[in-house]
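To fix ideas, we give here one paired sequence and structure record:
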Amino acid sequence: MQKCPLLLASAAILLATAGRPAAGSAPSKIPDVDLIWAVKIPLRDGIHLNATIFKPAAQTSPVPAIFTLTPYVSDTYNDRAEFFARHGYVYAIVDVRGRGNSEGSFEPFANEARDGADVVEWLSHQPWCDGKVAMWGGSYAGFDQWATLSEHPPHLSTIVPAAAAHAGVDFPFFKNVFGSYVMQWLTLTSGKPANFHLFGESSFWIQKFRQMYLEHRPFRELDRIVGNTTTVFQKWLDHPQPDAYWDAMAPTPDDYRKIDIPILTITGDYDGDQPGALSYYAEHMRWGTPSAIKRHDLIIGPWDHAGTRTPKKDVGGLTFGDASVLDLNDLHRRWYDWTMKNGDKPSFLKKRVAYYVVGPGAEEWKYADDLDAISAPRRLDLGSKDGFPGDVFHSGTLSEHSSPGAPYDSWTYDPLDIRPAEIESRDVANFLTDQGDFLNLFGNGAVYHTEPFSEATEISGFVRLVLWISLDVPDTDLEAELAEILPDGRSVLLTSDVVRARYRDSLRRPAFARAGQINRYEFTGFAWFSRRVSKGSRLRLLIRCPNSISLEKNYNTAGTVAAESGRDARTAHVKLWHDKAHRSHLEIPVARNP
């Protein structure tokens, strides 16, 4: 399957199995571990969650406890549990309600706040716990750390959320656009047992996503196409934008104000849940107290989703330096020692923000007091000579100095065009270096290039794009991708974003486009990244209407997108304006101290 450039269709909340501890993280003489099997933790509503508990062998005195609350069943995290037990902690792997050996029924994201808080307090009162409790985990287990903290259990000493999914922000939709991957994940977490083999059968999922796409079936029918109608899929589709249903799953401003524990947030440049992780971080920076903000550290590595727990040098066709492979198990241990055992703060955390710069001549960790201090925006205006920059060989321009030319560029998006499926019949492992998206536009999109960089330039931060667009349909989706084109012609995907036309002004209040009216579209959902762009490289910006088996298809009407089918399809004629009155432009974050 072709990887969605948004890194959301197949990676928004990717299963992050624990993996093995990083090399060198275990002591030379490995202590023994004791096990307590099938512990039943009572909740306030009478349900019991199942826990598998690992303890230091022959433990003689209480120690802090760490737990993971997971829908992926407890066997997934044994290696992590053993590692921390060997380093002097009790570790509990707890199945969420309705999964594994826990009682109740599983509704994703709905119950973890209260359940997690009850687990904290139960653990804190056990004879082998000294009353201090922490959490470990990423993805869903990053989400439920924030959810648990929103209940403010008194014995929760710290959280370390990695790649934390944020319901209603980056999963099950991103910018109100659903991904087909949602049904793959819901099937993974259906019923009591693990369903890892079915989850990993990419040929099956490609077949089903292609069936929906090629038959022009409504996205709402995907659960029937897959053959699993037992999930909350239909309920989620009834909430296609942020609302009270999703709001209930996240901390409130008042919750952020009450936070008074150390937090370590971890995410990656290529982490599909980076929008979730950084939204929690941003909200805490906005609403938290000054003292709490000073104890919230952030790490952004050159990692994909799973790499936020087990970093690897190779990601999506790129290879990073040795320094990128942090021993995150040991970093967690040192963090827990600092927050719960009066140890020293990890020396790696020199300032509150640590980020890794990739690229030729870079490959190093850098530090800042906050994200805003890292870079300043550089504006590049879009332009073209003939108004048809429809491919990489006939592109428009990105320039600091706008020049006269065509007032607008145009392209056509026909939702019934199924040619893109020809290149979406297999997984693309090298999704960061593959140029399939840029070379197969089928008349749907526009491409813009900068001049070659005169010197190596560090770009670190959030890209921002402002477009002035007119449509002849009430709605469509717009996607933007930014890549570095190296002097030898190779491509490196940097970041991407999407905007659904009806939500251009607000994700909560749809407003349909009027035919011919020029409207402002601001793309503010690009992933944060840090890369040293080479001398002689160019930036390439692609803008198009997405047409993929991996995404809920927009058939360009004013109806409910998930219910639309080929029978409703309207062809969109798109105009992207860049005249004097409508300066469409890209802002790139250039490092202040490269």
